[in-house]
Amino acid sequence: MPGQSGEELAEIIYIRHPKVKILALTNEDSIYYVRNMLRKGVRGYILKTASESNLLSAIHKVHKGEQYIENTLMERVQKKKQQAKKETPATPIISDREIEVLRHISHGMTSREIAETIGVSKRTIDYYRLSMLTKLGVKNVSALIKKGIQLGLIE
Prior knowledge:
8% strand, 155 residues
């Protein structure tokens, strides 16, 4: 989408119109992206390569208030969840770059602004953001900042 990512748009729609049921139709098959979209209020997630019957099923389920994630993606999300439970250390390991990004986030910078400041792509910043949300077990930016302060990562 020109000008805004699906993530940004989903979050805006969810905040402004929380009763709207969002179904993401995308080419993005990254489980990190799926999980992030679900955190931003998306109720359904389906790939553009899905069959017509799967698309119709997704539309009907989301319309009824149910969650829909394409089977292949759901299996990968579940597998990653189980793997993460086994691998999660007692203290999350946050990289120096992630801490740098977290500091910028805590100063109110957008992903695009952070990307320009440190010389990487916006998508890389979004990855760092999602990685920290996952590692620290939080669901939004304010909780991420709070957890960062509690752990002494930022002031």
